[in-house]
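Regression test case RT-17, inverse folding.

Input:
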């Protein structure tokens, strides 16, 4: 079951617990803090560290709390009463961890892991299996994994304590954690329902919640073989909505499903889940680089669809424009510039035979397009892309001379090393996504060719970006090392 959707919704449960207990007792929050230097390196000082290897199980890990990672370097003990957190938060003295640094003074990434529920709040329960227990077992395995990778890990609870969700958020925010991952189990009235869900706050694009959610979702599915379910962008949970760092909530399976419940209580399967979440976090912290490039625009509806998606996800891309199309849709060209994307020149008229007839015909077409883009957007771009790429069936005899002339004029061209192969316009969205993923070949540095004028490219873009979430998307500039055929 999900946690309460709001403080007010959770309050009646809270008061019920108070009545049941009748007497107040002191509550303890324990934040286990571990800084590990076992590997001699940390995420931020080794940006190209490959994603961790994933094992089906790991005998070094143990769900037995007595065998967990070296614990409680700093224990956070707070004297909470049963009063709602928001009423007594001022009275708490949160002793937050001294997050460790490596020799170069780089702060280790601080990961806040939140095993849902605890204490009197057991979450959902079926056949004697309580959600709070499964959540904690997975969280402790994840803690061990992340510590091995050089992260500083804070647990919202390391035992069967009740911690109000408001306090979990306060702890994470006060610790200035880099990422927040809440672990829960799901339930349904339909006992056949199973699979993995990840929730995030899609309304707050400043935190990159979606990229974190997508990576954790994908990697955990890969490690567990669990059924893929939809990612949910409309999470309205306090822990994902009020945290200040990228955050997501993973429901690792359905306790209401007998087969999945058996797996979720199995140590090996719990370790697979922890491996998957850790791999997602590792990829988030160690992004590869991708430059999304869109050719042949602007067009009316299709470019707008692409721009809307990029804006919603706070991604900057590169558009190689056609002069004629800029004249048709000047307001869209201006929007591309205004929203911080890079503009390059593609051509004025997309006619291979005319363009590559001679150096002069190429330069004349280019100068026309450059002037139109400058007069429309105010951008005096130095970037360009050859129609058909720098090596194509039409330019063999003039290619070298054109490149020499363009370089002399101070322009730099970019080919690509991955492609949606959407130029023909007859591929389904699913095929385009497969093309995009397959042609990147896991490279660390990718320039991806796409066409914003193609309808299906805009249709598949959101899902494609989820599939490519291990990449940080950046706009080209004249200092980026170009990829040339
Ligand atoms: Zn839950
Ligand atoms: Zn083109």
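Golden output:
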């Amino acid at each position: 079951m999900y946690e309460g959707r709001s403080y007010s919704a959770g309050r009646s449960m809270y008061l019920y617990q108070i009545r049941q207990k009748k007497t107040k007792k002191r509550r303890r929050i324990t934040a286990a803090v571990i800084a590990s230097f076992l590997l001699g390196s940390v995420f931020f000082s080794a940006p190209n560290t490959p994603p961790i290897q994933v094992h089906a199980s790991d005998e070094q890990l143990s769900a037995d709390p007595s065998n967990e990672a070296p614990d409680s370097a700093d224990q956070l003990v707070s004297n909470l009463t049963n009063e709602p957190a928001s009423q007594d938060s001022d009275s708490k003295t949160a002793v937050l961890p001294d997050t460790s640094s490596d020799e170069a003074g780089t702060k280790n990434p601080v990961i806040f892991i939140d095993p849902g529920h605890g204490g009197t709040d057991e979450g959902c329960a079926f056949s004697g299996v309580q959600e709070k227990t499964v959540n904690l077992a997975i969280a402790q395995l994840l803690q061990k994994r992340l510590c091995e990778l050089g992260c500083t890990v804070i647990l919202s609870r390391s035992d069967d304590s009740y911690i109000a969700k408001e306090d979990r958020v306060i702890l994470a925010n006060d610790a200035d954690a880099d990422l927040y991952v809440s672990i829960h189990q799901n339930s349904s009235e339909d006992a056949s329902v199973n699979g993995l869900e990840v929730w995030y706050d899609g309304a707050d694009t400043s935190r990159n919640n979606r990229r974190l959610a997508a990576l954790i979702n994908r990697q955990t599915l890969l490690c567990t073989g669990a059924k893929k379910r939809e990612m949910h962008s409309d999470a309205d949970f306090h822990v994902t909505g009020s945290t200040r760092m990228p955050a997501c909530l993973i429901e690792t399976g359905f306790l209401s499903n007998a087969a999945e419940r058996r797996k979720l209580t199995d140590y090996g399967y719990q370790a697979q889940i922890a491996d998957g979440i850790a791999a997602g976090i590792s990829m988030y912290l160690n992004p590869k680089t991708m430059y999304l490039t869109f050719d042949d625009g602007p067009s009316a509806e299709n470019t707008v669809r692409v721009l809307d998606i990029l804006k919603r996800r706070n991604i900057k891309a590169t558009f190689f424009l056609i002069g004629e199309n800029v004249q048709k849709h000047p307001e869209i060209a201006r929007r591309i510039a205004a929203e911080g994307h890079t503009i390059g020149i593609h051509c004025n008229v997309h006619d291979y035979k005319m363009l590559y007839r001679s150096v002069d015909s190429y330069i004349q077409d280019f100068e026309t397009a450059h002037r139109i883009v400058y007069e429309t957007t105010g951008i005096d771009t130095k970037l360009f892309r050859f129609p058909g790429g720098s090596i194509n069936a039409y330019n063999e005899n003039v290619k070298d001379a054109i490149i020499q002339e363009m370089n002399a004029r101070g322009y730099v061209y970019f080919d690509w090393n991955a492609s949606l192969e959407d130029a023909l316009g007859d591929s389904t969205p699913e095929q385009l996504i497969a093309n995009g993923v397959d042609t990147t070949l896991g490279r660390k540095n990718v320039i991806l060719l796409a066409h914003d004028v193609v309808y299906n490219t805009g249709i598949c873009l959101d899902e494609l970006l989820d599939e490519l979430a291990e990449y940080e998307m950046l706009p080209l500039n004249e200092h980026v090392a170009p990829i040339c055929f």
